[in-house]
Structure formats: structure tokens, C-alpha cells
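User: Please fill in residues for this 331-position structure.
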């Protein structure tokens, strides 16, 4: 963030477990260079849940994988426990990765269909030749609400999507991680099961002192599980702040549009959503200036000429917008 003049976004140094600065992820394709993530910066405090939200294609999952060095980012810095990840050798990365684990979006396809559940959950432990592997596997399977005596010898196809996601969470917990990146862990599940998995993640966070990065495209999902929310659009961060502040008073028009798109279970409530039209621009040729300007009803000439920088709008709340709608409301 120092490169963007946003060092003031940082919490106290002793609280930070993960620091991402000017992260860049680019892919070479036949048509040119895909700018998946462009200069993204954020910090994660120890023990908090940071919600990373935005519509499909904005670079959320790419950011999560880049933090894991899967693959290594094209540029920028990722510091975990004050250790620069981008400069580590493969052997050093292998030794560090047990502390950084990931829960994937599709719980069924993320599990090896040929292996039994005890082998799936305990694979990392067996690689590191842990003498307590069997006991640890039984412990974490129990912790996620399954009976190890019943499920251990079965295979993934014998379980529902929700049960498979519980198994995926158990596999993560087995390695005793510090940070868990949850890559849309409930988007493939029924609504009733989503609530169970969200509650389970909250319980596991408290029980095992975890720090979570919760990736989702639905702001309604992250509302109750995130301490802070970071909103992404086309590879850029457009707003970040405490969960309550972002929901009560969004400062970026894109954040406002995402919130207004959340269904309200009350037919008497009249909502006039912000008029956001069109599709997400191609990351092969992102718009100049503000990347949201081609869909923003508040865009002006300055938005095409000058890229907005992060600025403070409240305690711990920052926005990258020249003409934020909340400022107009305040005026």
C-alpha cells in the first residue's frame, strides 16, 4: 500500500499476519495479456475474517491463489508472518504452506474420488510423517460434525455436497493452519446447508484460533461472518472497511450496487437499485482511469482521465472513487 500512498490503511504492525502490497497477476494468452489482478494491497489482522467480494471475473479467486503462490504472482509482495513469500524457494514454500490452507468452491471435485476419507484428511499429515496422524484425523473429522468411525472408510461419492465440504474443512484443520482462504466455500450448496457451513467455519475459527479470508460474490453471505470487507472490481480494490460501516454506508457506487442487488425478504420494502448496466469489461483491455466508469451512472470526464486512489472516509474505512455516492448523500 505504500506505493499507492495508502500506508495509513495498515493496522498496528504487531496485529498483522498477512500483508499484500501491489499484487499483480497477469497471464499471457493468444489475444494479449490478461490483467487478472492489478496493484492490489491489503492487510489481514491476526484472528479476523476479511471478506473479499465482487462479481465473477473480478480476480477474487486469483488473489487467493496468488497469496498461496499457486502460481507465484507476476509482481508485488506477499508477507506472511513477516516472511516474504514471493522470494522463497520451492523447499521453503513447501515448509510454509501447511500454515496457509485453502477451502475450494466445489467440495466434491476438490476431493480425490479414489481415496477414502481418512486418507484424504490425513494426506498432509502422512507427507510430513506425523506420528499422531490417525488421532488427529479422527479429532478433526469429529470437530466438523461427522463420525470418524462411520465416514473414515467411505469415499467422496457417498456423501452430499455439504458433507463433502465438512470433509474439506477437516482436511484443512488437520494441518493446524494459521490462515485459511475460503474460496466461495458455500456457493455450490443449498441455502440451508450454507448456513450450517458458515456456522461451522465460525466455530472452527474460534476453536482453532484461525484467521480467515472469505471470498464470495454475494455480500449477503459475508455480512455476518466478516470483520472487514474488501470490494474488488476488475482486479482492483475499490472499497475496504469494517463490515458494519460498509453495509450501513457504502461509499463506492459499485459497493452500493452490490448491496442493492441483495434480495430483501419483505415485499413491502421498495428498493430503487442503482442503474448499473452492461457486462464486466475484458481484463485484456481494462478501461482507463477508474475501471468501473464504463458502467457507473455517476461517471464524469475525470473518471476516464485519472485513476482514483484510496482515501479515508471513516475509521478504518477507505474508498477509491472521485465522486462517491455517500459523499453526495452527506452533502
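Assistant: Residues filled in for all 331 positions:
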Amino acid at each position: 500500500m505504500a506505493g499507492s500512498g495508502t500506508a495509513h490503511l495498515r493496522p498496528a504492525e504487531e496485529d498483522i499476519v498477512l500483508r499484500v502490497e501491489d499484487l499483480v497477476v497477469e497471464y499471457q494468452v493468444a489475444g494479449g495479456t490478461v490483467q487478472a489482478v492489478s496493484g492490489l494491497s491489503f492487510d489481514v489482522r491476526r484472528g479476523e475474517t476479511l471478506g473479499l467480494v465482487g462479481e465473477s471475473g473480478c480476480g477474487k479467486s486469483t488473489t487467493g491463489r496468488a497469496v498461496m503462490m499457486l502460481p507465484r504472482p507476476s509482481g508485488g509482495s506477499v508477507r506472511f508472518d513477516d516472511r516474504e513469500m514471493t522470494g522463497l524457494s520451492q523447499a521453503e514454500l513447501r515448509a510454509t504452506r501447511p500454515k496457509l490452507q485453502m477451502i475450494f468452491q466445489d467440495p466434491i471435485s476438490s476431493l480425490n474420488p479414489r481415496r477414502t476419507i481418512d486418507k484424504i484428511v490425513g494426506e498432509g499429515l502422512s507427507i510430513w510423517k506425523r506420528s499422531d496422524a490417525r488421532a488427529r484425523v479422527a479429532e478433526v473429522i469429529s470437530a466438523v460434525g461427522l463420525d470418524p468411525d462411520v465416514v473414515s472408510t467411505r469415499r467422496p461419492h457417498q456423501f452430499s455436497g455439504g458433507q463433502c465440504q465438512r470433509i474439506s474443512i477437516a482436511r484443512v484443520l488437520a494441518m493446524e493452519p494459521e490462515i485459511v482462504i475460503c474460496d466461495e466455500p458455500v456457493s455450490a450448496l443449498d441455502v440451508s446447508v450454507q448456513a450450517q457451513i458458515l456456522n461451522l467455519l465460525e466455530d472452527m475459527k474460534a476453536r482453532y484460533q484461525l484467521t480467515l479470508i472469505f471470498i464470495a460474490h454475494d455480500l449477503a453471505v459475508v455480512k455476518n461472518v466478516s470483520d472487514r470487507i474488501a470490494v474488488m472490481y476488475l482486479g482492483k480494490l475499490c472499497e475496504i472497511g469494517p463490515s458494519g460501516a460498509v453495509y450501513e454506508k457504502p461509499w463506492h457506487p459499485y459497493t452500493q450496487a452490490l448491496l442493492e442487488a441483495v434480495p430483501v425478504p419483505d415485499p413491502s420494502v421498495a428498493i430503487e437499485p442503482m442503474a448499473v448496466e452492461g457486462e464486466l469489461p475484458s481484463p485484456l483491455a481494462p478501461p482507463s482511469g477508474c475501471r468501473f466508469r464504463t458502467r457507473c451512472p455517476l461517471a464524469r470526464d475525470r473518471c476516464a482521465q485519472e485513476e482514483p486512489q484510496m482515501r479515508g472516509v471513516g475509521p478504518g474505512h477507505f474508498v477509491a472513487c472521485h465522486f462517491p455516492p455517500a459523499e453526495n448523500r452527506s452533502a
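For context: Residues 1-9 have pLDDT under 50 and may be disordered.
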